[in-house]
Amino acid sequence: MKKLIIAISSIVLLATSAMSFELSPSIGISGNKGVYAATGIERNFNEGGTAIDTTTTEHGAFTDDFASIFVEIALNDALSLGVDYVPMAIETPQNVANINEGNENKVRAEFDHLTTIYAKLNIPLGGLYLKAGYSQVDVTSIETNSNSYGDDSTSGATVGLGYNHEIDNGLSIRAEITGSQFENVETNNGQTNKVEIEVEDMIGARGTISLVKSF
Q: What is the pTM of this model?
């Protein structure tokens, strides 16, 4: 998180001084369709918490629609630096275990504050561009039973391809597709006979349409 904050702060400072350095700032708002997948592993320990009694592995995927905003600084005609921020939660479907039993458990997760710092490289082919960056997101576990799992954060690389169509007066429309891969997340319920949850192989794809204003 500290490295991400430093990187974002650097870009914001660059944006505030962009005019004096004759750089070109842009702001934008985006609509996104995200598809995310991962493997979940649940390890149930014995009463002493020293050995694993059972292990369950499941694969899953989900989609969600969300908005994002970004600020971008063009260093020259080819290269830009930017920060993209999702101000809303990306929500997984709810999983229900032990349905209609006394110990029914409902669990879901929210991904908050998804932030990506990136470099955008224009390709001399119409309005095509490449994008590469680093993303970080907070993972919040939400349960309805007495178990309480800790929250975590994860990060990883993001790459993509897009097309920018200029309209007029500094306005343009962009369409892009990006893919991300995130580091594993692990948490447990804090009990002696603990239940440990690990989420691995987290990947995501994101289709984006943006309206951009350049100054």
A: 0.80
